[in-house]
Specification:
The chain is an alpha+beta fold. Helices cover 16% and strands 31% of the residues.
């Protein structure tokens, strides 16, 4: 679907990205890089239907003559609809010659994350005037081992029901209450049939592979 946006606001976000200054090796830095503004030039130019028709006439005549106009463009991936549950999947492998190698680097992640710097200014389910889109961490999947073998374990937070999340899932309503703290509860480490209570600091120090957040605000 192609939509026409005001070029002055097309790349605007709910909160100023430039105020972030994200620390390298953090989930904020990952999101910042994933949603960065990219320039499409030279061999990456964008095929422009409007420019093509302006130069060569109606589209039905273009394909037969194989005449197209490509133009420089900007591209940015932003969130247009804030999900009730946010799942972040970290790429834990890299190419090493003809082989894949696991990335064991620790990526810092917070208990509460604000998605506003990564959401379009016209995010569909955020109330007008809001500049925060907050999520609370409730689950982590960790992988121990190599690309060839290993073991998955999980951290899960036992907590009271999130009424704001219920409103979002069942009624599609935007949360109204202002909540900036993580939901209170006890963290547990689950490995097969073994379950053990752990501290939040233990969870935040793990080598996350999947992160699960639920929306607060």
């Amino acid at each position: 679907e192609v939509s026409t946006e005001d070029p002055e606001t097309a790349f605007c976000t709910l909160a100023n990205r430039e105020d972030l200054n994200p620390e390298e090796g953090s989930i904020h830095h990952c999101l910042y890089q994933f949603t960065r503004n990219e320039k499409l030039t030279e061999t990456n130019k964008l095929l422009c239907d409007t420019c093509t028709q302006r130069n060569y006439g109606p589209k039905k005549n273009i394909k037969s003559e194989k005449k197209y106009v490509y133009t420089n463009a900007k591209k940015q991936m932003l969130i247009s609809l804030a999900p009730p549950v946010l799942t972040l999947h970290l790429k834990r492998f890299q190419q090493a010659g003809f082989n894949l190698r696991k990335v064991n680097r620790h990526i810092k992640f917070p208990e509460v994350i604000d998605l506003a710097p990564f959401c379009t200014a016209k995010c569909k389910n955020v109330a007008e005037g809001d500049t925060k889109v907050l999520y609370s961490l409730y689950g982590v999947v960790e992988h121990n081992g190599t690309m060839r073998s290993g073991h998955y374990t999980a951290y899960a937070k036992m907590r009271s029901m999130n009424s704001r999340l219920s409103d979002l899932v069942l009624g599609g309503q935007s949360p109204q209450a202002v909540e900036t703290e993580p939901l209170k509860g006890q963290w547990f480490h689950i490995s097969d049939t073994h379950v053990q209570a752990v501290s939040a600091s233990k969870v935040l120090s793990c080598q996350a592979y999947l992160l699960f957040y639920e929306r607060l605000l």
